[in-house]
Amino acid sequence: MHQLTSTELKSIISPPSLESLISTILFVCLLFPFTTEAGLYTASDQVVVLTPDNVDSVLVNSTAALVVEFYASWCGHCIAFSPVWKSLASDIKEWKPAVDLAAIDCANQDNGPVCSRFGVRGYPTLKVLQLLHSTSFMDFQGLRHKIIDKMETHAEPWPPACPPLETTRAELKTNSVGHLALLFETSNSYVGRELTLDLLQYENIAVRRVLSTEDGLVAELNVTHFPSCYLYYPSGIFTRQLEVRTFYTYALQRLPGVVRAGKPLPVTSDLAKNTTEDQLRPFNRSRVYMSDLESTLHYSLRVELAAHPVIKGEALSTLQRYISVLAKYFPGRPVVNNLLKSVDMWLKGEKDTELSYSSLRDALDNTVPNAALPEGVRWVGCQGSKPHFRRYPCGMWTLFHVLTVQAEEAADPQEVLQAMRSYIHSFFGCRACATHFENMAQESMSHVGTLSSAVLWLWSHHNHVNNRLAGALSEDPHFPKIQWPSPELCPSCHGVKNGEHTWNQAELLTFLRSHFSSEHLLSDYLEEEAHSNPRADKVQICRSAPEQAVNPLFLGRH
Ligand SMILES: Cc1cc2nc3c(=O)[nH]c(=O)nc-3n(C[C@H](O)[C@H](O)[C@H](O)COP(=O)(O)OP(=O)(O)OC[C@H]3O[C@@H](n4cnc5c(N)ncnc54)[C@H](O)[C@@H]3O)c2cc1C
Ligand SMILES: *[C@@H]1O[C@H](CO)[C@@H](O)[C@H](O)[C@H]1NC(C)=O
Ligand SMILES: *[C@@H]1O[C@H](CO)[C@@H](O)[C@H](O)[C@H]1NC(C)=O
Ligand SMILES: *[C@@H]1O[C@H](CO)[C@@H](O)[C@H](O)[C@H]1NC(C)=O
């Protein structure tokens, strides 16, 4: 393992002028006392936050080239640069074993010895172990290409986890890796190398670059577009002629049998086995199921809230807002809507300043005719390949996406988001999740000014969470965390600008409004399992709700 020394690190960004630095320091010092925490990066940024305690273990034992930004949290350039660094870190998170981004706040006194050990005097300074010389501020695409250039042209020692990036003269041979993706491109294109790194942590797939000048292979496959990707074995040949890497990454990471290293290979027979009391129900991954929404309500109202024997103060108003939003916007079957409305009325009529959970439970269970919430959970679109995957948190996201879309006539564009925010804050059982979500909400939820931006806010922050959790232990290997929706699910949501992937917000909004609309919800598994449920007699969905026959939700199986 290679050990870093400070001489191997070379500055690639020149410090701002001393004069401007001093005036910045003076200005900032007048406004704020020096704080020793609060850096520009947090654990959720895919940026390694260096401290005196972790720096040695990170550097010495790293298989990766580490690109470190030395910054001072008060420095305006650093603040301006931090979104670029975060975007780049998120963009190349799959490259981690080969190249990883880090940051250290030299304004934090505790970090001083580390910063001086690496000879840093101006901020921000980027240093990379033995790779980079000098460059100026660049957009992150430029930085990404620069990193690849340096990885390719560097002298020994090579980060041990870096995959081969050179072009291949491969003949058409099947191989032992499983899938083989051939990326045809011109010599100045980076897509092949980027894709190789994007799939670095995935098994059963190899990516090889083939130059457009490889006439034999180009002619044999009749390749006319560069770049384009051809996939071999075991699924035969396919081609996608989209010009940016994100599309290839999406497609290749989701091939059958392709899994992130260290994750068990999904075995389809696992899913078919009746190992849990809940058997796997066939379902369409591109759809939203009412059964997940009802299961989420059951779990939230009968399990999660039950952990709070007495609900008062802020928690009580949170509960009232949550139930009120559900009563207004939940696109449920009539019996369920009747129940939500009756609980809402009951809560609004309660004048006590505190509520016992048992009285809420009574209101949920001993209700008026034609009003009921089915007992138990029946996950469908939110099923996981193992009992600890997906389910309730998946249902929670889905519920609130549906509610933001349903609230199309709300007077207050933040009504649903704020109800979600306070529910998560007061009650969501995953406390770390609640903290993360609250941080995101504090940062930007107050900027939401229209109903459309509420829908998009939840979409984009859910993708933020997906980005942070990609590759985490909690990720179901059958349902990798992606920047959603995939190009297959919504082709028009994706676009390309200056060679980089972009989202088309107008198309996204149209897509989200349709995907989460009440007309589009599937009712599979609702009715019959309510019958077979041992406690279904309490629910009486089928016997006491004749009006359900005219509800479009109940017409046929899709
Ligand atoms: C508020 C909240 C905060 C959380 N924070 C954390 C956390 O900090 N750490 C942690 O480990 N887990 C956290 N979780 C759980 C985590 O986000 C997932 O819900 C869980 O890992 C299950 O993942 P999943 O594969 O079912 O997909 P989920 O992320 O739960 O998504 C459910 C479904 O929604 C759709 N979807 C995906 N992305 C989007 C999008 N951007 N917009 C609209 N629809 C989308 C997809 O069809 C997906 O299958 C949080 C959950 C919630 C509700
Ligand atoms: C590097 O890893 C080894 C083995 O895991 C460990 O014993 C050692 O303490 C680590 N070195 C540092 C500096 O953390
Ligand atoms: C699982 O259970 C269902 C219903 O009980 C049954 O029809 C099916 O054959 C079982 N599947 C397996 C693989 O045992
Ligand atoms: C799943 O849903 C999508 C979107 O509605 C549809 O196009 C597709 O045909 C469905 N797949 C199956 C197997 O029903």
From TrEMBL:
Q: Which cofactor does it need?
A: FAD
Q: Which reaction does it catalyse?
A: 2 R'C(R)SH + O2 = R'C(R)S-S(R)CR' + H2O2
What EC number(s) would the UniProt record show?
1.8.3.2
Pfam families attached to this UniProt entry: Evr1_Alr (PF04777), FAD_SOX (PF18371), QSOX_Trx1 (PF18108), Thioredoxin (PF00085)
Which GO biological process annotations does it have? protein folding
Keywords attached to this Swiss-Prot or TrEMBL record, sorted alphabetically, are:
Disulfide bond, FAD, Flavoprotein, Glycoprotein, Oxidoreductase, Secreted, Signal
Gene Ontology MF: a single term:
flavin-dependent sulfhydryl oxidase activity
Parts of the chain that traverse the membrane: none
Location(s) in or outside the cell: Secreted
What's any one GO cellular component for it? extracellular space
- Superkingdom, taxonomy of origin: Eukaryota
Broadest EC class assigned to this enzyme? oxidoreductase
Domain (Thioredoxin): residue spans on this chain: 41-177
All residue ranges annotated as the ERV/ALR sulfhydryl oxidase domain in the record: 385-484
Describe its function: Catalyzes the oxidation of sulfhydryl groups in peptide and protein thiols to disulfides with the reduction of oxygen to hydrogen peroxide. Plays a role in disulfide bond formation in a variety of extracellular proteins. In fibroblasts, required for normal incorporation of laminin into the extracellular matrix, and thereby for normal cell-cell adhesion and cell migration.
Q: Which family does it belong to?
A: Belongs to the quiescin-sulfhydryl oxidase (QSOX) family.
Name of the protein described by the UniProt record: Sulfhydryl oxidase
Please tell me the species this chain comes from: Oncorhynchus mykiss
